[in-house]
């Protein structure tokens, strides 16, 4: 029997990838804003309906570039404890202090009503996450940011393909960052992007991602965040499949919805959201129930993942000790079920049967 992991990368037909690779041989340019990269950036801008987009090495460097481009070099960053570790590690790597605000229990995103109490003179920005592709309360966050003159960065690693209030979720905030890692819905093997609202900040970011210099004129401190033509080729080969991928994931998600025990039904719902079906999270009623189900699934070589565990405010290398009871509780009980394009109907039947049969009480 084949192992079933939480995700499996989509691969385009090989010949379609190789057609783009042929162009690399024709041009002889392997990296440094080559023509395939420019073509991918252009396609992504049109797809997302955004003005400024920079395709970069990965979704983590994208967050760090956002800090640099916004001139944030120290101070406190209001952020969420319920995310992948890169959200918090980016803050620390940029020598800032993460200030964790607890999440909303029904969408797992930062709770905007708890932000203001933690703002002080040292606060520079809000770094929030559209968890599993569901929107943060972008309206309230923007209001708070305006009131206190804070920057807003969205780690939109999960949000590619989701639209909210009629526009891409990636169009909100001063800068929105996305990951195109192999495990994400749309991928370029490794990769990421920064979507920047202000043209000047966008120009800064463009310079910073390529060592901060124009020819011999060294303008600012930079780093190497450039992406290669081979990665852009994978992006271009995957690009035509985006809506097909989302549709297949939608079908699989609806199959889970129909079969899973209703006591596990996901609370996530939103009228104004056009969802990308990036993940299928399930909230168990206790950690012991989750572990019981995991043991049963693992016996059948099915491996869901504990996204996200632990709650990031509990990372052992953090100095401050901030309590986030909702995030800590949900982190203990939540998991993402397998969701990828060639997951079969029968696979989902089996997974649901095992889960439903191994719930406690
Ligand atoms: C995947 C992910 C990242 C990091 O992206 P990489 O491209 O792997 O560096 C950051 N934040 C979140 C929420 C993620 O899921």
From TrEMBL:
Record has Hydrolase as a keyword: no
InterPro entries: DegT/StrS_aminotransferase, PyrdxlP-dep_Trfase, PyrdxlP-dep_Trfase_major
UniProt superkingdom: Bacteria
Active site, renumbered: 184 (proton acceptor)
GO molecular function: pyridoxal phosphate binding; transaminase activity
Tagged with keyword Glycoprotein: no
Sorted UniProt keywords: Pyridoxal phosphate
One Pfam family named in its UniProt record: DegT_DnrJ_EryC1
Gene Ontology biological-process entries: polysaccharide biosynthetic process
Record-listed N6-(pyridoxal phosphate)lysine modification sites: 184
Family: Belongs to the DegT/DnrJ/EryC1 family.
Protein name: dTDP-4-amino-4,6-dideoxygalactose transaminase
Originating species: Orbus hercynius
């Amino acid at each position: 029997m084949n192992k079933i992991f939480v995700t499996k990368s989509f691969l385009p037909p090989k010949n379609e990838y190789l057609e783009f690779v042929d162009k690399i041989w024709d041009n002889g340019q392997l990296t440094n804003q080559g023509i395939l990269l420019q073509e991918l950036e252009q396609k992504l801008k049109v797809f997302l309906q955004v003005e400024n987009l920079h395709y970069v090495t990965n979704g983590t460097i994208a967050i760090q570039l956002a800090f640099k481009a916004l001139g944030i070099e120290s101070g406190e960053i209001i952020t969420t404890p319920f995310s992948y570790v890169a959200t918090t590690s980016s803050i620390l790597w940029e020598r800032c202090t993460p200030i964790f605000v607890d999440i909303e229990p029904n969408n797992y995103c930062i709770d905007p009503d708890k932000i203001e109490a933690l703002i002080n003179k040292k606060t520079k920005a809000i770094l929030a996450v559209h968890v599993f592709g569901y929107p943060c309360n972008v309206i309230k966050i923007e209001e708070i940011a305006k009131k206190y003159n804070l920057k807003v960065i969205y780690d939109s690693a999960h949000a590619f393909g989701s639209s909210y209030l009629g526009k891409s979720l990636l169009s909100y905030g001063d800068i929105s960052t996305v990951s195109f890692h192999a495990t994400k819905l749309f991928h370029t093997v490794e990769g990421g992007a920064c979507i920047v609202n202000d043209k000047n900040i966008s120009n800064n970011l463009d310079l910073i991602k390529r060592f901060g210099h124009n020819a011999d004129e060294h303008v600012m401190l930079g780093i190497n965040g450039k992406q290669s033509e081979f990665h852009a080729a994978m992006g271009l080969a995957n690009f035509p499949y985006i809506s097909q991928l989302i549709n297949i994931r939608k079908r699989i998600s609806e199959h889970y919805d129909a079969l899973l025990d209703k006591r596990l039904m996901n609370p996530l719902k939103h009228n104004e959201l056009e969802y990308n079906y990036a993940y299928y999270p399930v909230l168990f009623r206790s950690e012991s129930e989750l572990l019981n189900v995991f043991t049963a699934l693992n016996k059948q070589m099915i491996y869901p993942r504990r996204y996200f565990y632990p709650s990031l405010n509990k990372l052992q290398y953090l100095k401050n000790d901030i309590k986030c009871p909702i995030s800590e509780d949900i982190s203990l009980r939540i998991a993402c079920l397998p969701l990828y394009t060639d997951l079969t109907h029968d696979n989902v039947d089996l997974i649901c049967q095992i889960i439903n049969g191994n719930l406690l009480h």
